[in-house]
Amino acid sequence: MASKHLAALAILAILLPAVAMATEFTVGDDQGWTINFDYEAWAKDKVFHVGDKLVFKYTAGRHNVFKVNGTAFTNCAIPPANEALTTGNDVITLATPGRKWYICGVNDHCANYGQKLAITVLEAWVSPASAPSTPAASAPSTPAASAPSTPAAPAPSTPAAPAPSSAYGISVSGYQLLMAAMVAVAFLVV
């Protein structure tokens, strides 16, 4: 019976560290979402995956956040005001892979003060530590073009080069992990 417990614990010890946990990124770290900050440099060494969250922190009323396409990002084209996030603690969950663009629509914060962020989001991987440290290097650096009349519509994206899903090159889906956990629990019960 003790050997079954040890086997179950060994299975869990191997599988649980491989599960990708969503990361929460505070955009601009301690500076937050503000003017005169280099968001390109901030994002450069970060790896973003589907499921991660971006938190835009700022004083409500002084800034806002718009999710835009590549053309709107390049031109600092401000979408309609009703599309703005304005709480000062806006959380965006990255739901799909590809390029993502965000701008501030207050005054000329985007065009003249650099308050804009472009990132590349990778698929959700089992082991965040195994993802490449510079995902932007494998994606085009120029934003994808799309019709300026629909700046809030998702822009076409070029997926980043695939990274191994774990240190062992084994992908573990949520279903597979659930099944492994059930097997481990079954060992404990028997």
Automatic annotation (TrEMBL):
Keywords: Membrane, Signal, Transmembrane, Transmembrane helix. InterPro entries: Cupredoxin, Phytocyanin-like, Phytocyanin_dom. CDD domains: Phytocyanin. Residues 136-158 are annotated as: Disordered. It holds the Pfam family Cu_bind_like. It comes from the Eukaryota. The keyword Transmembrane helix applies. The keyword Isomerase does not apply. Residues 1-22 form the signal peptide. Residues 136-150 have a biased composition (Low complexity). The chain crosses the membrane at residues 167-189. Residues 23-123 form the Phytocyanin domain. This is Phytocyanin domain-containing protein.
